[in-house]
Amino acid sequence: MLATETWQSELIARLERVMPTVEASMAVPLIEEIRELKRRRGAVVVAHNYQVPQITAGIADFTGDSLAMARFAASTDARTIVVCGVRFMAETAKLLSPDRTVLLPAADAGCSLAESVTAAGVRELRSKHPGIPVVAYVNTSAAVKAEADVCCTSGNAIEIVTALGSPRVIMLPDRYLASFVARHVACEIIAWPGACEVHERFSASDIRPYRDDAVCVLAHPECPPDVQAAADFVGSTAAMIRYLEARRPKRTLLLTECSMADNITVAHPELHFERPCNLCRHMKLVTLERVRAVLLDLNPVVEIDAEVAARARLPLLRMLAS
After folding, report:
1. Topology, domain 3-110+283-297
2. Which one of 123, 177, 187, 222 has the fewest CB atoms closer than 10 angstroms to its CB?
3. Backbone Cα Rg of the chain
4. What is 204-274's CATH topology?
5. Is 280 exposed, middle or buried (0-12, 13-18, 19+ CB in 10 A)?
6. What does the pLDDT read at residue 213?
7. Where are the domains of the chain?
8. Which CATH code fits 114-196?
9. Backbone phi, then psi, for 205, in 5-degree steps?
10. Could you give phi then psi for residue 171, rounded to 5 degrees?
11. Are the C-beta atoms of residues 150 and 133 closer than 8 Å to each other?
């Protein structure tokens, strides 16, 4: 069997774990076309954990959270970076790779959490709490990052806040992540009242029908406090994956975006995931067709105002250096 045919057969076998064979087979020609376009353009494709398996398993060179995507892209010698995610993720990639061409297949892919806070809002909050450091979640626009002192992820937020050594810290924009951090640090947290529309929809009542010893419940810290309290483990997407790989529970309730469970199943078919889960309408705007189009046209290109980019890059670099 030719190498191409072998690769296609292996991909279909992996995708069959989460979708009908005919659906997996129908995606292969477009996936192959995109892979060829990547080679021609010298491009790297990075995808978020919430993208569908046709993208993560089929065309992505790396799959992870938003910061890991940007760091991977920056570590390559690719001149073109295709970000299969939402706008703030593409901006983060551009901040860490300012001399590369960054393409966003779905220019209309926003984020309810990132859009819950503005640069003007941060400045107003600072004026009410002068001298208090501002920690911005990476799930924010470049303009908001430019108003912060340091960035954080859901995985390192506790360490970042602790390292500041301040009796009071402003955290934005997710109030549930802020409350999670507040339970683990000694300082007072002043939280921006934002939330992710995917994770905010979960409630403790979603867990009760599955609450027995055989079901392992994992929740993202962007979930409401009652969900976090009822879960067996609370952590970032990367932390949840590490937990599952180490513990290998037979049944798991994964309280985050639906495609993450699908992507884990592709890699670990022995794991079984219960529902419910919630779809992110913004992430689903990224499709194979749109990835092909952006590689053909090399557009839309992500641009950030030079002055904003210079200021926004600093809190990112402070986090990476900590």
Report:
1. Rossmann fold (3.40.50)
2. 123
3. 20
4. Rossmann fold (3.40.50)
5. buried
6. 72
7. 3-110+283-297, 114-196, 204-274
8. 3.40.50.10800
9. -65, -25
10. -120, 135
11. yes
Q: How does pLDDT run across 136-182, given as a tens digit for each residue? A: 999 999 999 999 999 999 999 999 999 999 999 999 999 999 999 99
Confidence at residue 1, expressed as pLDDT on a 0 to 100 scale = 45
pTM: 0.93
**Do the first three CATH levels of 3-110+283-297 and 204-274 match, i.e. the same topology?**
yes
DSSP class per residue in 236-265: -HHHHHHHHHHH--SEEEEESBHHHHHHHH
Q: Are 68 and 62 within 8 A, CB to CB?
A: yes
Helices of type H across the chain? 3-15, 21-41, 53-56, 66-75, 87-96, 119-128, 142-145, 157-164, 175-182, 204-207, 225-230, 237-247, 258-267, 288-297, 306-321
Longest CA pairwise span in the chain (Å)? 68
Whose structure tokens read 């409350």?
179
Query: Is residue 123 within 8 Å of residue 147, measured between CB atoms?
Result: yes
174 backbone φψ class: left, alpha, beta (φ>0; ψ -120 to 50) = beta
The pLDDT, as a whole number, for residue 236 is 94
Report whether 137 contacts 321 (CB < 8 A).
Answer: no
CA dist., res. 130 & res. 123, Å (int) = 10
* Positions in the chain short of pLDDT 70: 1-4
pLDDT at 3: 62
Say what the pLDDT of residue 211 is: 80
What percentage of residues in the chain have a pLDDT greater than 90?
Answer: 91
pLDDT at residue 275, rounded to an integer: 83
Q: Residue 302's closest CA among 100, 38, 91?
A: 91
